[in-house]
Amino acid sequence: MRILLVGEYSRLHNSLKEGLSRLGHEVIIMGNRDNFKNYPVDIYVNHSFHHKILKKFRVGFYKLTSIDLGSLEIYLKASLKLRKLDHFDIVQLINESSLVIKAPYEKRFIKQLLKKSKKLFLLSTGSDYINIKYMLEEKFRYSILTPYLNDSSLEKAYRFDLQYLNSQFKALHEFIYEHCNGVIATDFDYHLPLVGHPRYLGLIPNPINIEKLDYIPFHTGEKIKIFHGVNKNSMLKKGNRFFEEALKIIEEKYKDKVEITTTYNIPYKEYLNHYENCHIFLDQVYAYDQGYNALEAMAKGKIVFTGAEKEWLEHYNLKEDSVAINALPDAEKIADKLDWLIQHQETMLQISKNARQFIEREHNFLNCAKQYLNTWSSN
């Protein structure tokens, strides 16, 4: 089959492409590399307004005309490149805003995709109309919107997420759901809001290319190395402040026994190198399931503090703290878990092994690719 994957936020589509290609399919990824993360794509589409002066011009022009030149440029580039491509059997959008442009341009581009493909599928990964609405209704015990729900003055920091509820994005959401063959969730944070929806096709775990991620054996008796990688654009939503507060507690108590590394906004490849030799990996707090960075770290045998809530444990039939550590929005509880691990390195060794085995069993990129193929073929 010929398959077009539109958008790349986390390496999900790259790993899926690697699995599908291994199974004999032709796959193309179109996207913008997600800014500083710089994920690989086959067809790169982005705007030219990155310089400070050009940014100001773009903003000023938008205020005068309501036309976003960046969105318009990306739409035109994507449309032009799409015209040069042959027909596809499958097109999959990584999100309701897969090109990360204004909703009317997304809608116009999707209309062109529908003419170029037999089937169109949507992933629920990242913010979209349904999961943001679910969060605002406080149906999760906690979520990325928790800081905003506790303090409405943070609205500006949540503009990107809240935009999915405006009239234009709601219309885009309705258009996609009307014309796509179905919606696939990538983890429990996206699965739970979709349960019972007639367009929902089910959960397919994030594919991880375990062949590119070597397991790094854990050795007891070493100084415990803790890695905390921060994306400044999402640190509020991921609850990084709880990790920062917990690390202060641990550093004060175990100054000679731990080595803490914190990074900010570094490219994906550099990010991988920074946490290569760590033992404990601090990912995110406001989640029920693991995101892509957490899963790749688990594949390497890191003890990951991330989303590992009871719904996830029950689904995979796991015991608490056996594969990953559920990071709650409470700095003292996180510090207590870190303390427990530092004092029980044999437990860390077992979690490290369990994490790798879990990724091999549930997130193997070839098995996940087969699940996508089965879902696409039957819908």
* Helical proportion, percent range: 40-55%
Give me the secondary-structure category.
alpha/beta
- Gyration radius over CA: 21 Å
Low-confidence stretches: none
- Biggest β-sheet, characterized? 7 strands, parallel
Q: What average pLDDT do the residues reach?
A: 94
Secondary-structure element pattern, one letter each = EHEEHHEHEHHHHEHEEHHEHEHEHEHHH
Number of alpha- plus pi-helical segments: 17
Q: In angstroms, what separates the terminal alpha carbons?
A: 15 Å
Count the E strands: 12
The protein's oligomeric status is single chain
Q: How would you describe the shape?
A: globular
What proportion strand? Answer: 15-25%
Strand order within the widest beta sheet: 3-2-1-4-5-6-7
